Amino acid sequence: MNPIVTQPDVDPEKAKEVFEKAAEKIVKWNLTTPAILFLESFRPMNLVGAHVFLFFQPLLQVIFSLPDSEIFAHLMMHRENMDRFITTIEEKDREFREKNKKSKE
């Protein structure tokens, strides 16, 4: 899989951590499908979508700290990162389902 495209001052490991944290919350809140649909629909306008994230930054603080929400918005300006984030959500959802399946057995 391609590495996350970051700003020069953002550590790639920090970027990965921000994506994983967001994906975990999305899966925990059972919003996997709506989140993926939203991201896929904004794919052609990812730059506009990233600015929407910046506009709604106060709401993003439910998931992230202020610096992390800025990092997330800047990461979403790159189309490659949108694919990476969707993949991260799908991976976390798969892990969550497997964990729940094992706990039910």
Description of the structure:
With 105 residues, the chain is mainly alpha-helical. It has one domain. Helix content is 74%, strand content 0%. The chain has 6 helices and no strands. The model has no long low-confidence stretch (mean pLDDT 86).
Q: Quick check: average pLDDT?
A: 86
**Tally of individual helices:** 6
Strand content: under 5%
Q: Alpha-carbon distance between the termini?
A: 33 Å
The count of domains is 1
How is the main sheet built? Answer: none
Structural class: mainly alpha
What low-confidence regions span 5 or more consecutive residues with pLDDT below 50? none
Helix content: over 70%
Topology as a string of helices (H) and strands (E): HHHHHH
List the helices and strands and how they pair.
Layout: H1 12-28, H2 32-42, H3 46-55, H4 57-60, H5 66-75, H6 79-104
Task: Give me a quick take on this structure.
The protein is an all-alpha fold and 105 residues long.
Key traits:
single chain; about 100 residues; mainly alpha
